[in-house]
Amino acid sequence: MSGSKSAEAGGLSVVFNDGRDVIQALSQFNARRVKQMIAAINLLIVLSLINNLIFGRGVWLSAAAMCVFALLWIARLFFDRERPSIGQFLFIWTIFASVTVITWLGDGLRDQVILGNVTVLVFAAMLSTPKHFLFLYLAIVANAITLGMASEYHWVDFGLFPFDWSNVGDVLLLYSVTAVTIFMLATDMRQLLARYNSEYRKAKASENEIYRLANHDALTGLPNLFSAQKKYRDDQVRFPNAPAALFLIGLDNFKAVNDSLGHVFGDLVLKTIADRLQKIAGEQCIVFRVAGDVFGVLTNNLSNSEEILATAERISGKISEPLGAGHQYIMLTCSIGAAQATVADPDFEKLRREADIALYRAKSSGRNAFKLFDESMNSQAIASISMAAKLKTAIDKREFQIYLQPKVELDTGRIRGAEALLRWFPEGEAPVRPDDFIPVAENTGMIVEIGEWVIQQACMECKRIQALGLPDFSIAVNVSAVQFKRGNLEHVVLDALYVSGLGPQSLEIELTESMLLEDEYDIRGQISRLAAKGVKFAVDDFGKGYSNLGNLSRFEVSTLKIDQSFVFAMFDNPQSAALVEAIVRMAKALGLKIVAEGVETQRAANMLGLHGVDFAQGYFWSKPLDVESFIAYAAPDGMAKASRA
Ligand code: C2E
Ligand code: CA
Ligand code: CA
User: Fold this and answer.
1) In the 8-state DSSP scheme, what is residue 12?
2) What is the dihedral sign for C-alpha 515, 516, 522, 527?
3) Fewer CB in a 10 Å sphere around the end CB: N or C, the chain?
């Protein structure tokens, strides 16, 4: 926090870089002047000594001059040792003593040197305290009177001049007028300085406050992004080759902490996290708060990815220590994105953008993760931005279609339903795969609107297919967690059922396992309210994620879809076969129906049937088809009837 914070803040004109007082500064300035005077007087003494030598003047005079020289020299040393009051005392009294001695040895009251006492009074008024000044004045007066008496009573022979008491009167008048005038002037100056000093202190305090507010975060007291950036630039100048790295740390699900435990607790959490991160900070590392639940750590001593990873692990370890106050305890995790500055391109903004992209990646990879930025992320980020722009208009431009993939009952070989899979055909471009555009739609929140469209279309098409002679036909629709969190899924589903006239039992909503792990947003409540109306729920891609069957029982889920990777691997890998068997057994025990995905061969279909799997989907029967092709495939009679009618 050092450095020159001078005139900019608050328009102050006199602010000392190192925060000294005005009075303190002035006394140091005086000290310099007194030292210069001492040097000048001592030079004069040396010259007069030479003079004495040349003209053979008395030894005693030379000895006295050397004494004065030595005393002034000592006074000077006190100034050097930061003891200015002793220095001033010595200086003033040495001059006074010299003047006194010279007048006593010379012409007494009539010696011109006696005027030197006026100078002594000026010094004393400027440099010392009023008490000291008064004392000196009395000493000077006493000396003048004693000199008068010495002349009157002939204690000392002052030679040529005749004496009378008016000489004492003149001198006393001169001293008194000088003393009063100079004392008043000096007092005025002192008061002015004191007032100035207090103004200065106030201005200084507000300047410090402005500086603190501009550079620090009010809640945690940590430096803010602005000061991190300043530190980064300073470091660039001081250590241009030091390897700088920036970590951005986002707390996972902090909103939920705030929402459920209140803002006071939320603030406490942020302060605690700030303290913990601060413990990691050292000479080569600054911890700061970016905004909200995002903190930053800027280092300049981590050169390779192993060191960066180790630091990220330390940070994440610190944050995930249990945290609480009173009887509220929680565990927080964090997502961390890091980026390294290159010597060739040390721009802070760029570093921050890259760390931001990496953080975003860490968050979207399922949180509690660390990602180090690499160039491929940049191009991916750019690609998703342009994709997001195109997605925005896709519904209006009718670029979406739903495709249906039949769901076959393994016992009978009959088509009992279909899964609706979204397809995007951007105008004038090649179709984009859902695996590519769904994550972008999720991240931008557009999935809420798109998902609503899918549900409406799926319900309408299902109703149409039922009318073509497949009354038990059901449709499965994929939904994203974002739709639960941000959309009003419950109403969207009920509206779609109402508008299409489809019975709720004909609609199955496919969830992913990770949605069942989130306790937020009342996903469980939303599911159970829809389930109570008759809507079915399936867990998609089971086995790929956390695979917690126990967790399933807390949700009103009726179907489990075994992930296609197990089906693909069933014949090559005995473990996969065993896993499929185990999943089927446990699911049956929980009363769940089972669907196997990715069935590409007769052999796989047979094997799954033997294991007790209820339904299956896969290229063995059909790829996802556009609705008309699907109807031709699944309900050819109904199609024929419908077209005859
Ligand atoms: P998913 O729900 O697991 O869908 C199954 C995917 O496997 C589909 O890919 C399907 O075309 C493919 N598939 C089906 N049978 C076979 C097979 O025998 N062999 C192989 N190799 N693949 C098969 P698709 O259509 O590309 O969809 C990919 C993912 O995109 C879906 O995975 C789903 O998670 C997501 N998705 C699709 N439509 C929607 C939607 O409307 N909303 C949401 N939120 N996600 C959707
Ligand atoms: Ca699915
Ligand atoms: Ca699946």
Assistant:
1) -
2) positive
3) C
CB 409 within 8 A of CB 634: no
Please give the C-alpha separations between residue 517 and each of 319, 521, 545, in angstroms, as whole numbers.
21, 12, 11
SS3 of 480, please? coil
Q: What is the pLDDT of residues 354-408, one digit of tens each?
A: 999 999 989 888 788 999 999 888 888 788 888 999 999 998 899 999 999 999 9
**E strands within 493-543?**
507-512, 536-542
C-alpha atoms less than 13 angstroms from C-alpha of 167 in its C-beta half-sphere? 20
Q: Delineate the domains of the chain, giving CATH numbers in brackets.
A: 14-198 (no CATH), 225-373 (3.30.70.270), 383-644 (3.20.20.450)
Q: At what angle do helices 375-394 and 434-444 cross, to 10 degrees?
A: 80
Q: Which two tokens stand for residue 530?
A: 């829809």
Quote the tokens at residue 271.
């302060």
Listed residue (574, 573, 569, 575) closest to 596, CA to CA: 569
Report the C-alpha gap between 274 and 222 in whole angstroms: 7
| Among 520, 561, 565, 522, CA closest to 542 | 561
CA angle 558, 559, 563 (to 5 degrees): 155
Distance between Cα 466 and ligand 1 center (Å): 23
Query: For ligand 1, is residue 483 a contact (CB within 6 Å)?
Result: no
CA of 404 to the centre of ligand 2 (A): 11
Is residue 413 within 8 A of residue 389, CB to CB? The reply is no
User: Mean pLDDT, to the nearest integer, of 248-258?
Assistant: 87
Contacts of 475 (CB under 8 A, 6+ apart): 404, 417, 418, 419, 420, 458, 459, 461, 462, 502, 506, 507, 508
Report field, pTM of the whole predicted structure over 0.90: no
By the 8 A CB rule, do 243 and 340 touch?
yes
Q: How far apart are CA 334 and CA 312, in angstroms?
A: 10
